[in-house]
């Protein structure tokens, strides 16, 4: 079976050179006679990989010295609880800006975690419209949507809503909000490293690896050192961010193979020219797709407002669900997979993460033009 054009939302396509490198090194890593998976996490072979992955993250993103870069397990979902557990104090809660389903989940977990600690999580703003099954999210927030409490421990947002296809900081009209002195915490799981980011604007950034930088099982956390130092000490050690921070993310056994794959992906990314080059490539890919959608207004419809349209997850509808089913089936027959929208919203979703090749988009766009013509 030849490799397919994989538009999955996550776990998602990985760059072929990163996979080939893993294949070539699989049985005999660095001339050691064993797989990297079989090495001790305390041995020099693995440690070199771990250090290289951390160094590449710092280099690619230009992470300032005042920040720690951590590898954490449990998925981004664990961080939904772990972040409030670390950062709230009794009587000093956290603010949440909700622009889609993942923001809702983060807020919901924060409510449970803060209640345990004598604090609370507060909705500082939402762009949701309607209720229940009719709930819609079609735009990133503006300053007018947001009321931050000046004493909040932090303001949380989701930079890219994977299900709704709503993203911050694609268009200058929808920048990351200014929370004043309140630290900004961003879930960047589905758009981490899609372009350069000014890390100093954030108190904490976290991202599950399985969309843009590797396989599932690892979360990258970039956090201001003073927030780590001030974090709670009365929660279990394994949940304190200072534990990975003080132990180079080697307090206990990390997901070594996942971190190894991250190293391979980051090395590939650097070889392509880094985040500036990646931004151009990603904007071109998504631009082509939105171009086809907009050129066929009677057939394709993107529900997301123009300024908030995601460069990573392009969502759209066809005239009827039967058309969408046929679309997914015909595309699959042509080797293009992973196009079905999330079950909660339906429609089509094309995930165009870093590893998705521009040529795949050319092929998908040609198919879409033809499909619309046939109606
Ligand atoms: N946040 C966002 C924006 C996501 O897209 C996802 C996963 N799709 C998560 C959080 C949850 O990640 P995990 O499955 O790693 O817990």
> How many DSSP H or I helices?
10
CATH class of the largest domain: Alpha Beta
Quickly give the structural class: alpha/beta
Bound molecules: 4'-deoxy-4'-aminopyridoxal-5'-phosphate
Largest sheet: 7 strands, mixed
Stretches where pLDDT is under 50 for at least 5 consecutive residues are none
Rounded to the nearest angstrom, the distance between the terminal CA atoms is 30 Å
Helical fraction equals 25-40%
Report the CATH architecture of the largest domain.
Answer: 3-Layer(aba) Sandwich
Rough shape? globular
Which fold does the CATH topology of the largest domain refer to? Aspartate Aminotransferase, domain 2
Q: How many strand units?
A: 13
Task: List the SSEs and their pairings.
Elements: E1 5-6, H1 16-25, H2 44-61, E2 67-72, H3 75-87, E3 94-98, H4 101-115, E4 121-126, E5 155-158, E6 160-161, E7 166-167, E8 184-187, E9 204-208, E10 219-224, H5 225-230, H6 242-246, H7 256-271, H8 274-295, E11 313-316, H9 321-333, E12 336-337, E13 348-351, H10 358-374
Parallel strand pairs: 1-12, 3-4, 3-5, 5-8, 8-9
Antiparallel strand pairs: 2-10, 6-7, 9-10, 11-13
Helix pairs in contact: 1-7, 2-7, 3-4, 8-10
The structure holds 4'-deoxy-4'-aminopyridoxal-5'-phosphate.
4'-deoxy-4'-aminopyridoxal-5'-phosphate binds next to helix 3.
Provide a descriptive summary of the structure in words.
Strand 3, helix 4 (101-115) and strand 4 (121-126) form a beta-alpha-beta unit. This protein has 10 helices and 13 strands. The strands form 4 sheets. A 7-stranded mixed β-sheet has the order 2-10-9-8-5-3-4, with helices on both faces. It has a two-stranded parallel sheet with strand order 1-12. The radius of gyration is 21 Å and the shape is globular. The mean pLDDT is 97. The chain has 375 residues and is α/β, with parallel strands linked by helices. It folds into 2 domains: 21-271, Aspartate Aminotransferase, domain 2 (3-Layer(aba) Sandwich); 273-374, Aspartate Aminotransferase, domain 1. The two termini are 30 Å apart. It binds 4'-deoxy-4'-aminopyridoxal-5'-phosphate. The site of 4'-deoxy-4'-aminopyridoxal-5'-phosphate has 11 residues, from helix 3.
């Amino acid at each position: 079976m030849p490799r397919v054009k994989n538009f999955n939302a996550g776990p998602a396509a990985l760059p072929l050179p990163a996979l080939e490198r893993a294949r070539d090194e699989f049985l005999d890593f660095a001339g050691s006679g064993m797989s990297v998976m079989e090495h001790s996490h305390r041995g020099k072979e693995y440690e070199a990989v771990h250090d290289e992955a951390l160094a590449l993250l710092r280099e690619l993103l230009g992470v300032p010295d005042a920040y720690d870069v951590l590898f954490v397990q449990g998925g981004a979902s664990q961080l939904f609880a772990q972040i409030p557990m670390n950062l709230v104090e009794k009587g000093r809660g956290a603010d949440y800006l909700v622009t889609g389903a993942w923001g809702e989940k983060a807020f919901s977990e924060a409510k449970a975690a803060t209640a345990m600690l004598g604090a609370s999580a507060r909705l500082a703003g939402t762009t949701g419209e309607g209720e229940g099954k009719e709930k819609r999210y079609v735009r990133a927030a503006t300053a007018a949507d947001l009321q931050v409490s000046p004493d909040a421990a932090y303001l949380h947002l989701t930079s890219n809503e994977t299900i709704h296809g709503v993203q911050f900081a694609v268009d200058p009209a929808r920048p990351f909000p200014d929370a004043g002195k309140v630290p900004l915490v961003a879930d960047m799981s589905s758009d981490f490293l899609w372009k350069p980011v000014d890390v100093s604007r954030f108190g904490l950034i976290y991202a599950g690896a399985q969309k843009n930088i590797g396989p599932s099982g690892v979360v990258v956390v970039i956090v201001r050192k003073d927030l780590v130092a001030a974090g709670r000490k009365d929660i279990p050690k394994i949940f304190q961010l200072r534990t990975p921070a003080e132990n180079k993310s080697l307090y206990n056994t990390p997901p070594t193979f996942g971190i190894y794959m991250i190293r391979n992906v980051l090395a590939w990314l650097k070889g392509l020219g880094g985040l500036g080059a990646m931004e151009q490539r990603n904007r071109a890919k998504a631009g082509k797709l939105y171009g086809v959608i907009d050129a066929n207004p009677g057939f394709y419809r993107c529900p997301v407002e123009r300024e908030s349209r995601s460069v990573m997850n392009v969502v759209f509808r066809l005239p009827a669900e039967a058309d969408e089913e046929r679309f997914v089936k015909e595309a699959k027959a042509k080797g293009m997979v992973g196009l079905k929208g999330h079950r909660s919203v339906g429609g089509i979703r094309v995930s165009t993460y870093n590893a998705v090749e521009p040529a795949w988009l050319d092929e998908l766009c040609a198919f879409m033009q033809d499909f619309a013509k046939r109606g």
